[in-house]
Design goal:
The protein is mostly beta strands. 14% of the residues lie in helices and 65% in strands.
């Protein structure tokens, strides 16, 4: 009897949460182009808070290193967290949007375009724009691009596998970010 009550309570909470999520237009998305960045896993969650506004939180993670007989070891590892908002010109999850987010990233990259390696922490703010195209009532295809700027604490090493430090310090940066072709599931 007690297990049945627990099951009924869980089902009622699930149904209530499902109605609330549907009414608020909750989404989960993944950027297909990030996977081309040496397998960077990524997920964004968005919640529509008004007809033209949504709040967004995202995570990126790449623990992978690769070996090449020609170029040696190369990688573009990171873990990154972000939070921000999007303004939709027509309606949440439909059409053109503009957004901004704050972001923190711990990164380590080496062997890609240079023989040196760099690691550090970046923090800053990004500005983005894009378009969301509805494929199905629960599936969108989103295109976009952005820039992010801020500060970085970094170290540069002489090669991707050795620990000889060439340079360290802090610097400002402006980088392209979120070149996206995302699959978006709309609840």
């Amino acid at each position: 009897m007690e297990n049945r009550l627990k099951l009924i309570l869980v089902l009622l909470l699930f149904l209530a949460f499902g109605r609330m999520v549907k009414a608020q237009r909750f989404t989960l998305s993944t950027n297909i182009l990030e996977y081309a960045n040496l397998g960077t896993l990524n997920l964004d969650a968005s919640f529509g808070v008004a007809q033209k506004w949504s709040v967004v939180a995202g995570v990126r993670y790449n623990p992978f290193s690769f070996e090449s007989s020609r170029n040696g070891r190369f990688y573009n590892r990171q873990h990154s967290w972000s939070a921000g908002a999007k303004y939709w010109l027509w309606h949440v999850n439909s059409g053109w949007w503009f957004g901004s987010r704050i972001r923190y990233q711990e990164y380590s990259s080496g062997g890609l375009f240079r023989k040196t390696a760099e690691e550090g922490d970046r923090y800053g703010m990004g500005f983005y724009a894009g378009y969301s195209y509805m494929l199905h009532p629960h599936l969108n295809l989103e295109f976009g691009a952005g820039l992010w700027t801020g500060g970085a604490l970094y170290k540069v090493f002489s090669c991707p596998t050795c620990g000889l430090t060439l340079e360290e310090g802090s610097k400002m940066f402006v980088l392209p970010d979120d070149l996206m072709i995302s699959l978006v599931y709309v609840f």
